[in-house]
Amino acid sequence: MNGLEGAVIAVAGAGGPTGRAVLERLVGAGARVYGADANAERLRASVDAAPGARGAVVDLLDPDATRRWAEEVEREHGRVDGLVHLVGGWRGGKRFGDNSLDDWALLHNLLVRTLQHTTLAFHEALARSPRGRFVLISAAAAGQPTQGNAGYAAAKAAAETWTLALADAFTDTEAAATILVVKALVNDEMREARPNAKFAGFTDVADLAAEIAGLWNTPAIDLNGKRLCLNVP
């Protein structure tokens, strides 16, 4: 079973190692993939690694630009079957006093506002699709915050809550909004930079990409509103 064959998938935050792994996996499964990122160089590297994928430099903090991107993707094929939200970022420290409102503003923009803009732009198209899927990559910190990552954990928790509201909007449709939870992500560049590190409990970006791809082979009723933990005790 390959629910991705011919599917039209948008990937927000497609630059970097995670975006590259996800684009490669989705294209390899037969999907038509449209990546967006604010960083042209990082986006180009991801698209080049996934022949057949297309990319658009989009400021996802601009709701109008995000909506134009969504409209372009749907206009190209008459539908959108998936939206993968990979926009990330981290700020924090070891002590509660290390948290700052400047860091919170940055995290709110990256982790919450980009999510709001993309889901508002794509949700109607996803609801119309017979295999619409939305996936948010979240972190265990959202449910288990520590004193030094208060801003990050709060932003992730807000993103999860927004996603659950989207899941409610998908009730009585064939679409699903799902949260994939990781402790943290690891890629080959990180391993090369820290050859002695164990990265215990981290999820490899290739494994994350495989989990994302598998969502199109799972019935929406088993996914909508679900929080699925990867390598998280």
Account of the protein in words:
By secondary structure, the protein is α/β, with parallel strands linked by helices. Helix content is 43%, strand content 18%. It contains seven helices and nine strands; from the N terminus they run βαβαβαβαβαββαβαβ. A seven-stranded parallel beta sheet has the order 3-2-1-4-5-6-9, with helices on both faces. Strands 7-8 form a two-stranded parallel sheet. Helix 5 links the parallel strand 5 (133-139) and strand 6. The chain starts with 7 loop residues before the first strand and ends with a strand. The relative contact order is 0.15.
Terminal CA distance reads 30 Å
Number of E strands: 9
- Which regions have little confidence, pLDDT < 50, spanning 5+ residues? none
SSE order in H/E notation?
A: EHEHEHEHEHEEHEHE
- SS element count, helices: 7
Strand order of the largest sheet: 3-2-1-4-5-6-9
Report the C-alpha radius of gyration, rounded: 17 Å
Largest sheet: 7 strands, parallel
Shape: globular
Share in β-strands: 15-25%
Summary, kept brief:
The chain is an alpha/beta fold and 233 residues long.
Secondary structure elements and their pairing?
Layout: E1 8-12, H1 16-28, E2 32-37, H2 40-48, E3 54-57, H3 63-77, E4 82-85, H4 101-128, E5 133-139, H5 150-169, E6 176-182, E7 185-186, H6 188-193, E8 203-204, H7 205-214, E9 227-230
List keywords for this structure.
single chain; 233 residues; alpha/beta; seven-stranded parallel β-sheet; two-stranded parallel sheet; 7 helices; 9 strands; 43% helix
